Fold this protein.
Amino acid sequence: MRPTETSSNIRPLKPTDAASDSNWNTPLRSDAFDLTDEEKIERIEKHVREIMLTLGLDMTDDSLNGTPKRVAKMYVKEVFSGLNPKTRPHARLFENKYKYREMLVEKEITFYSHCEHHLVPIYGRAHVAYFSNGKVIGLSKINRIVQYYAKRPQVQERLTVQIGKELESILQTEDVGVVIDANHMCVAMRGVGDTNSKTGTAYFNGKFREEKVKGEFLNFINS
């Protein structure tokens, strides 16, 4: 097998496991959205500045002075913007007027996320497939759904399930498959320091739990 191939030996996350107690939801406090984005940026900026000062950095240096605000804006407006439900993609569905009944695969979707344990990057590729239940979704919306759930502190297993469950909800079908392979900088740049390993996760439901269909999906990915 080629090194870039995704193997069918990946242990899939079972839909029943994912949905049993809503563990696939990102853990958020009940007051998570009481503050405006501007208020969050102001608070985070102060804390980042304090961290940098504690590390001994000279915050009067013109290269460092603006860093706390830049980091705060990046967290709220960019890399963690998927925490805000206001940024959730509004997916428009279309009638499957062509009567296309085969598998639709959107592969090699690039994403960037952050490990929730160390807040360092996770980056990789998502591969998504589904069978139409009479409706189809615009292809770009699949990418946006992946990005929405990636732009928050994450673990890869949860990200995989969230994408799958969101597509099931939108498309009103259980026939959804998701495979993710990703690099974790918490493994590469700290701790064990392994720059070669990748992590693979999969979510298969409906028809994708059949070995023949699952194999067809993986062949699409690896072709």
Remarks:
- The chain has seven helices and eight strands.
- The chain has two domains: 37-83, 93-222.
- The longest helix spans residues 37-54.
